Structure to design on (315 residues):
């Protein structure tokens, strides 16, 4: 399917998020970020800790206030002041899976209440029987038994807790799920199970994901397109395989070079690329966001864009 035929579900335009008061104490966590997510795809946002990726996710779901820019969901602006009706719609249609399954579940509540919380908030059921049926179906969808509803979170393993967290988002019947490092707190053996579950649910329910991560090898497995973020700015964005085979920005190249290779002989002789921000000279020639080839964007000044263009020609 060509990009022109794809429906854009979410669009982020020139988004800035700042923390702190006064000029001296202000810190810009997200700096002029733009991207869009097509309906039905998994869009990855990858970068190291503190790069601003979780802040973007929280801004989309209206947990963090935006300083400037626009977030447009299904053609409607959803950041800043919005009416009650739209707020309710966003609460239902955009859901988040949090990073830590230990911290994101209420320890004092039973699973039945935890999964139902969103339904209670926006009264998304007519009868008690309908609520119960929705909750049981959500549990079955993530591979858990309905009899778990009367238990407390501490009775479950990390992987099961994360499944409860996923059931809590599914029960709302969302269109967009923001998965904020949903597997980084889990054991390695459980990670693949949760990733496979997310992929399976996407196929069955036509879900769209914004998948936030710092681990590039995981992102390669699950995403269709990928944006690389560094200190609040997106430096490169392309289809996932294109980004892995032809990384242009030095920061992207350094992240990819750090991925461990399963073969010990190759791993031993591997040359790591270390990113040094001083390699950019933006004093007289500031960087721009450029589409260097169809659907492949990169941040760079005129001199760098010329260099990246030559790198693509030589492939």
């Amino acid at each position: 399917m060509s990009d022109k035929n794809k429906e854009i579900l979410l669009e982020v335009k020139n988004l800035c998020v700042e923390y702190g008061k006064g000029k001296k104490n202000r810190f810009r966590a997200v700096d002029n970020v733009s991207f869009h997510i097509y309906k039905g795809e998994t869009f990855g946002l990858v970068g190291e800790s503190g790069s601003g990726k979780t802040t973007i996710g929280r801004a989309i779901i209206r947990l963090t206030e935006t300083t400037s820019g626009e977030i447009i969901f299904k053609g409607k602006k959803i950041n800043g002041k919005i009416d009650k009706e739209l707020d309710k719609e966003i609460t239902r249609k955009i859901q988040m899976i949090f990073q830590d399954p230990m911290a994101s579940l209420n320890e004092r509540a039973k699973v039945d209440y935890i999964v139902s919380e969103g339904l209670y908030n926006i009264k998304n059921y007519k009868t008690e029987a309908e609520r119960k049926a929705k909750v049981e179906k959500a549990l079955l969808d993530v591979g858990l038994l309905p009899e778990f509803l009367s238990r407390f979170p501490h009775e479950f393993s990390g992987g099961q807790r994360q499944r409860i967290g996923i059931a809590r988002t599914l029960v709302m019947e969302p269109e967009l799920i923001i998965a904020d490092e949903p597997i980084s707190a889990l054991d390695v053996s459980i990670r693949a199970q949760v990733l496979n579950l997310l992929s399976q649910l996407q196929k069955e329910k036509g879900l769209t994901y914004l998948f936030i991560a710092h681990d590039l090898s995981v992102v390669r497995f699950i995403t269709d397109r990928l944006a690389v973020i560094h200190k609040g700015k997106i430096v490169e964005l392309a289809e996932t395989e294109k980004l892995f085979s032809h990384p242009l920005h030095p920061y992207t190249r350094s992240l990819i070079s750090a991925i461990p290779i399963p073969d010990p002989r190759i791993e031993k002789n591997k040359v790591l690329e270390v990113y040094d921000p001083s390699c950019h000279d933006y004093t007289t020639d500031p960087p721009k966001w450029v589409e260097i080839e169809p659907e492949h964007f990169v941040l760079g000044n005129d001199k760098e864009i010329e260099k990246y263009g030559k790198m693509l020609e030589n492939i």
